[in-house]
Amino acid sequence: MRNKLLILVFLSIFMPCLHDANAQTLGGNTVYNFLKLANTPQLTALGGINISNQTADIGLAFNNPALLRPAMHTQTSMVFNSFYAGIKNYHLMAGFHQPTIATTFAAGINFYSYGSVAETDMAGNVLGTMRPNDYVVQLSAARQYGEHWHYGVTAKFIHSAYSIYRSSGIAMDVGITYSDTAHLWQASLVAKNMGAQVKHYAGSSAGDLPFDLQLGISKRLAKAPLQFSLTFFQLHQYNTRYDDTLFNDETGLAQDSKKKKYIFDKFFRHVILSTQLYIGDKVEITAGYNYLRRKELNVTNAGNGLNGFSMGVGVLFKKIQIRYARSYYQNNSSYNQFGLNLRLNDYFGQGGRNK
């Protein structure tokens, strides 16, 4: 009865979100699209989106607050990502469990620096340089309900600065997780980036945030050192194919696109598959496949290599977790991520809360 009541409460929260999501914009027309990028090596290795993976990595809770656990007390995640053209990404997150109110909190920041860019006028005259950046600051809280349920919420402050063009926004994520440790599986549902701009870019009107409704399930095998994850995203809109009618007319694809229904393609654009192999209790090897990324970044009549695939490795010592990930883009272009997880209590305190 208690579980059914919890489900009804969360449905009452999610259903209005689904109604509002019909007005949300997909693709590059939303603002703050950096919110969709993977912030940790393990998330990158899992395909870029994962809300259900069974792990002790607090970095995954940045995208689903319901993954926060009391054992993450004082755990800190520090990540450095190097992208193309001098773009840098820095991520920091730390957890804190308060037993008196049975709540686990976390605070985090994700910062993107786009380097030094020449600032010009309409005629191309160089006026100076600018250092554009984006960042989001988050505060999360999560609690357990009954034996299997966990639920959480994240509040976000978002800011973008591109010279005189600046914008700020507020948003929230709401997540619920069902964890069955006896049968080694976990499922999650998350509504992400529900919010709005509070300050628009100069000369522009309000834009939509990149809302996303995600569902994920992870299962670890009882007799083999493997875990599999299946993640569905953009569930609020089925058809996410980009249809450029001008390009189709010029290339003769217009008639072909009218004949095909693309049922298989439309479905798998919402799906990410990933797996983890455990070597003892010290090493994790991860691989993921993002079908949407491969389809959207493929170049016609060109070799696309491992585009859409990702992989990573984690080495888990007693006091520190070291993680590395590599994800592939067009023509085998790739970028690397490196991160560290450690519990501050192991270095500065007398143990920690492990329950």
TrEMBL record:
Q: What is this protein called?
A: Penicillin-binding protein
Q: This protein's superkingdom?
A: Bacteria
Organism (species): Niastella populi
Q: Which residues form the signal peptide?
A: 1-23
- Which keywords appear in this protein's UniProt record, sorted alphabetically? Signal
